[in-house]
Amino acid sequence: MAAKSVPVMLSDVTKIFRDPKTKAEVHAVENANFDVKPGELVTLLGPSGCGKTTTLRMIGGFELPTRGKILIGDSDVTFLPPNVRQTATVFQSYGLFPHMDVFDNVAYGLKIRKLSQDEIKNRVNAVLDLVGLSELAHRAPGRLSGGQQQRVALARSLVVEPQVLLLDEPLSNLDALLREQMRVEIRRIQKSLGITAIYVTHDRIEAMSLSDRVIVMRDGRIQQVGTPGDIYEYPVSMFVAGFVGKVAFFPARLEGIEDDGRTALCTVGGRKVRAGSVAGNLGAGARAVVMARPESLRLVGREDAIATGMVTARVYLGSSVEIYVKTEAGEILVQIDDPSGKILPSEGETVWIGFDEKLVRALPAD
Amino acid sequence: MFTKKKLIMFAVVCAIFAVGEFWIFSTLQNTFEKNSIKEMTSLIKAMTSSAPQNDEDLAHWSEELSAIYPDNRFFVIKGVPGEEGSENIGGDSALFDIWKLPANATIAENAAESVSYLEVFRWPAKVSFLGVPYTLMVAPVPDEEDSSARATLLVAIDASGYVAFGKLVQSLAVVAFLLFSLGFGIATFSRDPISGYAILVLAAIVIAFVAYPLIEAVRLTLVKEGRFSFDVWKTILSNRQYLQALWGSIQLGIVTATLSTFIGFMYAFAVARTSMRGKRLVTGLATMPVISPPFSLTLSIILLFGKNGIITKQLLGLQNFNIYGLGGLALVQTISMFPIAFLTMQGVLQAIDSTLEDASLDLNASRWHTFAHVTLPLAAPGLLSSWLLVFTNSLADFANPLLLSGSYRVLSVESYIEVTGMGRLNNGAALSLLLLLPTLTAFLVQRRWVSKKSFVVVTGKPSTRLSDLASPGARRALTGFVAVVSGFIVALYATIVAGCFVKNWGIDYTFTLANIGEALARGKQALLSTITLAGIATPIAGILSMVAAFILVRKKFLGKRILESLIMTPFAIPGTLLGISFILAFNKPPLLLVGTGAILVINYVIRELPVGVEGGVAALRQIDPSIEEAASDLGADQATIFRTIILPLIRPAFISSMSYTFVRSMTAVSAIIFLISARWYHITIQIYNFSENLRFGLASVLSTMLIIIVLAVFGLMRLLVRQSEFLEKTVTTQ
Asked: Looking at the structure, do residues A207 and A325 belong to the same domain, yes or no?
């Protein structure tokens, strides 16, 4: 049932709402520019209110952009209503038809397309097989578990063979274990069908583990577009760095950018440091910070320290131990791998923190 | 959306339509004109050929013609005007004044030439005398040899009908163009044309059948002999009789509202807050007056307490007891309206968080103290709002006072008498508008003040375990009170049923079945037409109200607030006003509907729409919008979504809106009494006529039948709604 994969392109898409009470303009999405390649799964990631759902709804046709253009394949769909677009949405609340059983829910789109009874039956059964719900075809949606309802919603969207699959926080109503299962399942199905998909979530782990590429949004603006690895290792701002993972920021003075902008010479905690990477938007003389992920931090002797502080908590996780240290730069998490046999500081003890220069990154300070 | 290409196409198509329409309508008008000229010419030929042969008699000819054709004006000239020997003989000299005007010299010359060739000449421009337009014709009176004109006749033919036709054609053309460009505009520019059309249709309906009649009613009170004037209002507000009616309505409203709220509160407290037994029976009995047809309770009050009433005459032996008036009205209105207060208060009392009362009791307050200082203050806004609700209902009530007011005056009946008895439509309209004043005040008080004072929504959930606030003694007293009132209601209905089988109430109590046969025979036609029209109105109101609810809840569009208030307006205005507005607006073109069944159907639909829309809106708010979005996403257009998703999901609201419309249409009185005709009669009016003629037996039979129909419809509705209850649950758990 794989349709031909198509790209999606947004150019300068802006959505301005007018607050019904205050009459003030709300810029929900501003100048969103990105494209999704055929067969790719791209995630819109950001805190609530960042405009990710609005962006998805504009692609699905539920909202009209104030400005800008949306292309699916070669055709401009900006002003087309949802029912004539080749998109299918899996809604956060599923939106299953409560007065129809599972089979009829999934068959709905095919009936609208006036397919023959036989074809409807075959296609519905095939897609129910794909999501593992063949047994429950004649159950009412009210009598399904959350995970099963989720699968029905997915099946109902897939059965019409959309060019683009849109998923709006599809897993947010499920418990943690089920969420992990469904995540794997969605990815498997999407890959096997080769369908272009756009996924909205505020959960960074979901975004990182599912996506070919991640688009991080904040206050209606796109902050960064990149592969999960890029976003995690090479964030462009403190916001992105903090949103996609745990991170420590050290105030720094930028001395110079070297190696054609690949490394930065900074002073951190009175010490000269050559940061292994540098954000492209960091200009010379700008206020800067040096970011370090917990796994690139370590406890060192006083002479190599960048920061110092008191241990507030020690969390044992098996393969690693997390040490929380209260410093002048705020609470810093140090992750120590392979803890067995190592001597670990206990709570209340003063420790010194250092990092591997090659693994830290210089960013513009907010 | 608005792309250049679409805008150009829209403009071009509209222009083509306008040109085509102009062509059609001007052809129409020309044809009409040609025909009317032909008719006029032959008429004038007939006149001139019957002209008196004798020249002396020509002097009286114009008078003779005026007597035969009073709408037209004539002027006779001997010979051909302007030629030698011509002489004005007589008639309306204003016609000749026009001829003589220097500006008309060329026309007059041409006319004289035509006359000398024995041809009828039509004056090219319309002329007008005293504001009435005329077509001026100049006709020769041929001599015996038919070779020359011996006289000339100037005829001014009344053209007001013709001018009115022209105006009608023009306005039709404008309306057609507006409708076309709106509809085509929606189709071109909207992403969702079906909803656009639905909005357009709804707007057209409420503008034509809510706004237009009401504006007509207001306009008529401000017009006298075609001019703007406050005369009607001056008369109304200075006439003792009318002011008495206004005061009478208010007085009755106050008494009824106070009594009803008191009884309603007792009932509500007994049902919601005590362990009294037989609550379901009490509640069921109390809701009977709400759904029972008009006149039935009045009828049974008359049977019990009237001049020949079984209690007043047979039991107490009173000779001159008079139930007609304020006392009787307050009694019957209280019985019919206290259930409104009861149902409102029951909701309020159930919503009060009983832990507050428990806390008070726990702090060693007595039960009475708790009731007076905790329960009552919490219930106060509810009490006031049910008082206002009953007050407005009492003012709008028409059926009860119609039968029972006697010499007591109330506005609703007064305006009815003005319209049907005196034929003073303006005064009737003004009086029913006056009725709006207290109603609107009450509505605003409710809106602005009571709703803000409400404490009750604190928890929202009805508490499950309620402490019994009444001491055993108080409970017994309360139960006794409720039992007496309920017993009275039972007695009232029993009386109506008994009335069916009695030969002549008050005089001859022998058992008979003759009433049933006679009532059926005489009421058959009315019953059939009532059922037919209610049956037509029901599905229309049902579908329309669900569509309106869907659009109001889910669609955003310009003027939504106005549309919503227009749809809801008939709920707030008394039926009398609506009825009077309808006859004022629809007894003339362009919508000449008075006397048809359609006007009744439209009235039913318009009046019951608000309730259906409210129900539909409440049901739709329960439904997750993503269900509809999912359907749209899967390719369904708005009409398909409405049919396959919305309607099945709001089925309970749909069914109850339909059964409500049916029942209310079957039991309507106040508006339709103005709109019925001999062909389309109404069963309730038949009951009224029987009662007025003291044929209480026949009235009882029809009332009983109507009660049975109403109960049957509500029973059926419950059955149908219960079947789809599982839906509601799955909808709300989403």
From this structure: no
